[in-house]
């Protein structure tokens, strides 16, 4: 497990939302600057298309990143669009050659 990479998989929405959560799907791509700093995420059922991180810490930092174009929410708290999703950080074994 030392050579495993880490992926971000959606559990549900962090709060009540009109959006449907991509439950059980893996984060495929994310642009925090999209939609004027509100962010845009793409999810996939295919673990082979999932973004991969070298460690849980790096995956957590990515999930919590703040857009440069909109660093604060309307309430003055840090804007972290991807944290609208409750996620789990899971090991993804590297493919064997």
Can you characterise this structure?
12% of the residues lie in helices and 29% in strands. The chain has helices at residues 34-37, 56-63, and strands spanning 5-13, 26-31, 40-44, 85-92. The protein is globular. The protein starts with a strand and ends in a 5-residue tail after the last strand. The mean pLDDT is 90.
Salient structural properties:
97 residues, alpha+beta, two-stranded antiparallel ribbon, 29% strand
Brief account:
The chain has helices at residues 34-37, 56-63, and strands at residues 5-13, 26-31, 40-44, 85-92.
SSE topology sketch:
Blueprint: E1 5-13, E2 26-31, H1 34-37, E3 40-44, H2 56-63, E4 85-92
Antiparallel strand pairs: 1-4, 2-3
Oligomeric organization of the protein chains: single chain
Molecular shape: globular
Helical content stands at 10-25%
Order of strands, main sheet, comes to: 1-4
**Mean pLDDT across every amino acid position:** 90
């Amino acid at each position: 497990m030392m050579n495993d990479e880490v992926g971000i998989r959606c559990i549900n929405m962090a709060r009540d939302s009109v959006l449907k959560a991509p439950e059980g799907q893996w984060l495929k791509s994310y642009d925090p600057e999209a939609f004027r700093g509100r962010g845009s995420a793409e999810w996939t059922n295919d673990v082979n298309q999932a973004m991969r991180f070298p460690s849980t810490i790096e995956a957590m930092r990515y999930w919590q990143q703040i857009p440069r174009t909109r660093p604060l929410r309307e309430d003055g708290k840090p804007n972290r669009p991807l944290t609208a999703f409750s996620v789990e950080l899971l090991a993804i074994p590297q493919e064997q050659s």
